[in-house]
Design goal:
Elements (H helix, E strand, L loop, with lengths): L2 H4 L3 E7 L5 H11 L5 E3 L8 E8 L7 H4 L3 E9 L1 E3 L8 E3 L6 H11 L1 E6 L7 E2 L2 E2 H6 L8 E15 L4 E8 L5 H12 L3 E11 L2 E2 L25 E4 L2 H8 L4 E2 L9 E5 L2 E9 L2 E7 L3
Parallel strand pairs: 3-12, 14-16
Antiparallel strand pairs: 1-3, 2-3, 4-11, 4-12, 5-6, 7-10, 8-9, 10-11, 12-13, 15-18, 16-17, 17-18
């Protein structure tokens, strides 16, 4: 039996530093833990810092139930300049004069709600089987995909109109590129803008304040998967039902009203994630073996 299957599933909140990719952080964690199956639930750009939710062992199967959560960011913005990447990578060019605070607040308010966003040129999204950043760096032009996005709030924390530097807190839905939001903000104001710093402070109700540095990851750290799934409904099972769930058998929905995924629990441990189907809860992801 491999070590990956022996290790109990865990969720580890990691505070990513600027520089390494999200894949680099996963590799660091995997080595530190003895090389179990390891993954994350949402990419951060290399220049960005903050919360990465790392899953190990069978918990990697839970990624779809975490990657769709809303996320909160603190963005350090420079208005009056443009970046080809939307971040410090550049190239950086001069823009127009920074706006006054009232204009900035109005433009931020206009970002809130449902909208569409063109994927940044330097992103990992594939177009025709190739990464968009590779296409861009090769000097080729291609139509960038458009996505529907949701911004719940965009709050101005601080602003210096003399230097054009601002700090903004943004709460947004999954798949939103904050650096592209900043670029769009700058174009709406007519002066240009780019994201100088970016920090993810929360994924759903999970906070970076509970995260550890990558070099602190070690065997036994992190929490049981159930502790990062508080946004799901939960159902405690008796021994008979639990035994069936472990083998993929459905259980009845006692309320008959489940509208989304439900965590099936026995003895305080997560056995499976089930989906409601015809009045039953059918296991889709089984963690218990």
């Amino acid at each position: 039996m491999s070590q990956a299957t022996e290790m109990p599933p865990r969720a580890i909140l990691v505070d990513k530093p600027a520089g390494p990719t999200s894949h680099d952080i996963v590799a660091i964690c995997r080595r530190a833990l003895g090389r179990p199956r390891t993954g994350h639930t949402g990419t951060l750009d290399p220049f960005a810092t903050g919360l990465l939710v790392i899953l190990t062992g069978r918990a990697t199967r839970l990624a779809p139930y975490l990657s769709g959560l809303d996320k909160t960011y603190r963005a350090g913005i420079l208005l009056g300049a443009r970046s080809g990447s939307g971040d410090p990578e550049g190239p950086i060019t001069t823009g127009g004069s920074p706006p006054d605070e009232a204009a900035l607040r109005s433009a931020l308010a206009a970002l809130v709600g449902e909208g569409i966003q063109r994927v940044p040129a330097l992103s990992a999204v594939k177009v025709g089987g190739r990464r968009l950043y590779a296409i861009t760096r090769a000097g080729e032009e291609v139509d960038r995909p458009i996505r529907a996005v949701v911004v719940e709030r965009a709050d101005l924390i601080s602003y210096d109109p003399m230097t054009g530097t601002a700090e903004v807190e943004i709460r947004c839905g999954p798949g939103t590129y904050v650096r592209q939001l900043v670029v769009d903000l700058g174009e709406a104001l007519g002066c240009g803008a780019y994201c100088r710093t970016l920090r993810r402070t929360a994924v759903g109700d999970l906070s970076v304040e509970s995260a550890i540095a990558p070099d602190e990851v070690a065997p036994g750290c992190g929490v049981a998967p159930l502790e990062v799934l508080g946004h799901l409904g939960a159902l405690d099972l008796d021994d008979g039902s639990a035994a069936g769930v472990v083998h993929g058998r459905p259980v009845s929905d006692p309320t008959g009203g489940a509208s989304g995924p439900v965590a099936l629990v026995a003895g305080g441990l997560l056995l499976a994630i089930a989906e409601p189907v015809d009045g039953m809860l059918r296991p889709r992801v089984v963690l218990a073996g």
